[in-house]
Amino acid sequence: MRAARSVIAVILVLSSRCGFGWTDEPPATKSAEPTKLDAFGDPLPPGALARFGTIRFRHRAKAVEFLDKDTIVSVGSSIRIWDANSGKLIADRGSKEMGEPDCAAISANGKRAITLHKHHIIRVWDVSTGRIVREMRFDPQCKDREYPFFPEISVCADGSRFAITDRLIYQCQRGVAGPTWIVDVDSGSKLAKLQIGLRDVSALAISADGKYLVAGLGTHKDNWDTNQLVSVWDANNGRLLRTDNPGIGPIYRLEFIRGQESFVVAGRDVISLRTVDGKERWRIGGRNQLLENISVASDRVLVWSATNSNKRVGEILDAAAGYRISKLDYEGWCGQNSTLSPDGTKVAIADGERLGVLNLRDGTEIIPPNGHTLGVFSTSVSPDGRLIASASQNDRDIILWDVDQAREVRRFKGHNEGGRRVDFSPDGKFLASSSLDRSIRVWDVETGRPKATFDGFSPNLDPICFIERGKTLALAGTTVGGPDEVRVLEYPDGNEVLKHTFENNSSIKSLIRHPNGKILMVVASAIPKGSNQQSSANIEVWDELAGRPILQFVAPESCEMACRISPDGRTITTSTHDGTICLWELATGLERARFSDNGRIDEYGGLGPVHAFSMDGLTLACNSIEFHDVNLWDIPSGRRFASIHGHGGWVVTTEFTPDGRRLLTSSCDTTILSWDMTRPEWRSRPLSSNLSDADLATHWNRLRNATAEEAYRSKWALVGDPKKTVEFLRARLPSTTPISAEQIKTWVADLDANQFSAREKAQRQLHDHFDQTEGQLRRDLAKTTSAEVRNRINHIFNANLAAIPGPNMLRDLRANEVLEQIGSPEARDLLRRLANQPVATRTSRDAAESLKRLEARPR
Q1: 3-state SS, one letter per residue, for 652-718
Q2: pTM score of the predicted model
Q3: Of residues 289 and 708, which shows the higher confidence score?
């Protein structure tokens, strides 16, 4: 594993020695920027052009409570106040020090919020100001964990005291019960620690007046049929008052009826109302539905149950007698938290990344779903940049949006579970989507109709990618109980073109469509599945259609997330959970550069850095999960020059439009934002060099003899002085002497010569000049009938296709890269001359590909 290093400092120092630098544009004059509004009339963040979806009632909240019948407060990475009737955000009392809590609770009077964070930090917040009232550490007995296991907080009505537990601690330290504390907020002192022996607290509730605490007690040996106990404690001193066995199996939830000394006990499918002196008022059982959450008011109990993966049923019960008053249907998740309004007319639900607010009179949702209702985890921009498709793991619909107007064009309906990945075909006529329902569907973009459906895949199927101008679809995933594999299918008939299985615990990370539209590259990491290993990973990049690896390299730590390829197809990236992004030269498999945010990109270890190249190849846009930002990196200098702020949740995907004028980012906040990348502070940094003849000669030599990192810096130095560089290269390219077609044919014929020495010599010449002989070798391989010739040609291919090019060829390829990056008329003329050589070579074919990309570049 390569030693960690500060690339930013190194690149900046060496860049000055290489004769080029980063030219900062003068800062734009700050003026009052008019606030733009989205389709709902809500303000857009500065620099945003449009919002796809809505921010109304959108919050990754851990707790929700009514301040009054018309106002809601939610607590997540910030404290937000909402108009309960319109969903409009009234106030966002956010704080970067707040971060993403592991769990939270809000007092019934709405004045205080309690949050628990990593490293077991407890914070008490003043809801009206968003300031910390008190901070303390919850000291668990298992000290080697950064996060608690399934914690729970319950706070009394006025917020003066709360109870907190670390449930199921036996997972970390078997046989040791998690601590449960009662804490006084004003003094910050722990009033009592419950003495529960070796039992675990499965649920927790403190009474509104703060006098009583009830807890569900079980053990790590409990199963679905074990009856857990209910214990009642004095919340002033932690004295156990009584323990009862309600006989309802595992205890999921406990909630006190507001203003009373009775509480609701909820099991898997049984609900009971009990008093603190051990009496049972009523019981409802045999519901045959998995209970998910309960909400209580002074006279009502709302019980949420799951019917399938995305639908919930709510029953409103009379608190005194337990009979059902009404029934609700809700599409979403209710497991986090829900609460009833003081007047009993509404219920608010913390549903993942949004708040679901229902009118109890008719069961309708006050703000109907617009766009995705949960996080957007996959996007794909159409080749013409007019459309963007999006998928969410919690939404069955794939949504197609108009980029300019930020409106829904249509929904692709057919999946039975949430979406995983989406991908446009290269011609933009088709869209492929994979889903948790184990299917892949191909849609006609114009009509919205399904063109093909492939079923029976693993739900872990992730990468999908169109190839061959959209006629075939490649997909990768894990077979159930088996290794990772890549399959290429034709549609609509589903014929399998090829299949490749990766053994030795390899894990497929990405399918990448090369800019030439033909080569499919599969990146696999040789790390044991299910392992937490963070050592180096062996990465292979495959030309899947040819069925062979084209390069191999060792990535730092582990390649965890999806990889990207640069617009010119010469650089591939890998990324890790610690925030490191490495750039690798595709021709050699060697590291060109490295970017790191020192852990800021992914503090939570869940999504990893997601990044995208700007269309000019100068900027890398990378998410910063901790602060919900997108950082812009200048690739030539290795400096982060700007950050884009505006999402209310983790940024999950980043996509530039083909013209490079917009950056589209999706987020866990359920929205997609379109950013104006023509703003001076966000545009790619201009390069400026003033190279002497000696500088030019030095950089020319480094393209051949230096390390990949040094050669990469020389590339940018040459690009920074385009006029001198093109003239310099014109006098030196092509640097190889062409071999006549007759000589190549003679060598091929000698592969079948009678003398062994002649065959060996011909093979060696064809191998050494492979860049010029490859075309003829392919033609002869297709028509030869000689086993000897076929074996020797295959040997030449196998030795060359996965090998690092020789120094002279590598210099020519890197020079082509410089010319393509410059892209001026003079650079194109030189590329055209190189592409039209009498004998086709690897460098001439590479020059031709550069010209095609330049011609397709938006003007």
Answers
A1: EEEEECCCCCEEEEEECCCCEEEEECCCCCCCCCCEEECCCHHHHHHHHHHHHHCCHHHHHHHHHHH
A2: 0.82
A3: 708
